[in-house]
Amino acid sequence: MTIRERNTIVRYLILSDIHSNLAAFEAVLADAGPFDKVWCLGDVIGYGPQPNECIERLKELPHICVAGNHDWASINKLDISSFNPDARQACLWTREQLTPSNWEFIESLPEKLVEDNFTIVHGSPRYPIWEYITHQFVAAANFAHFDTTYCLFGHTHVPVVYAFTGSQRTCDAFLLEPNEPVPIGEQRLLINPGGVGQPRDGDPRASYMILDKEANTIELRRVEYPIEETQRLMATLKLPPRLATRLSFGW
Ligand code: ZN
Predict the structure, then answer these.
(1) Euclidean distance between CA atoms 117 and 231, whole angstroms
(2) Domain that residue 25 falls in
(3) 36, 42, 200, 209: which could join 122 in a potential S-S bond, CB 3.0 to 4.6 Å?
């Protein structure tokens, strides 16, 4: 990984849901090639074994980042009674681990950011922390809740692009092929890069995107990482076994 020295920002690394999985995060950084800036869509922590390490790695990079539900839950800013028992246990463990400065970092994350022509959120522009955009009709309703051409979101851990067609009831959905840059034009889009640290689309490889402003393209990338390294750490730390197992299957 190298960071280019120049004034104009051209290549953005779009990351979401790192979830304390440093091995996955490092694999993404090694795979990404040169980039100018990271846009991080939240849930840096929660579930995985290395919350402080992931925050510190992100802090080293030129970046902006929004808050996710697991970020807020970890600093006790959000009620976790609706979390499933495994998520709750991992969250309470994470809360114990955070150093004061990393706690402050998470506390400082905004719910929404706008940069250039992009709105950046974790869940959805309508309800940035909580809402899951899992379907075309949910996506369609959300186009009324941001003013920019594009909106980047995460939270579902599933890479997808929704395109506005003028209807508030439904829209088009596209699955991108990895390693194929796709031009983005005038059409308004909701873009999800998938999850770095806990993919849930049946492909266990870390998922992320590259935005190239010069070429005006987005590119989905998938990269293998040493899953067993993360799983071994989780076992040592006595994190819920189910959270470790699911990483092998990408669900
Ligand atoms: Zn998440």
Answers:
(1) 38
(2) 11-113+177-248
(3) 42
Pairing of β 11-15 and β 37-40: parallel
**What separation in Å is there between the alpha carbon of 236 and the centre of ligand 1?**
22
Give the Å distance between the CA of 147 and the centre of ligand 1. 25
Domain count, the chain: 1
In whole angstroms, what separates CA 246 from the centre of its chain?
A: 18
Cα of 98 from ligand 1 centre, angstroms = 18
Whether residue 68 contacts residue 44, with contact meaning beta carbons closer than 8 Å, is answered with yes
Neighbours of ion ligand 1 (CB under 5 A): 17, 43
- What is the identity of the amino acid at 73? A
CA 247 to centroid of ligand 1, rounded, Å: 13
Q: Is residue 204 part of a domain?
A: yes
Candidates 65, 95, 97, 102; CA nearest to 80 is 95
Q: Is residue 70, in this structure, part of any structural domain at all?
A: yes
Residues of the chain scoring pLDDT < 50:
none
- Please report, for residues 64, 175, 198, 222, 238, the alpha-carbon distance to residue 41 in angstroms, rounded to integers and kept in the order given: 9, 19, 14, 17, 28
pLDDT of residue 9: 82
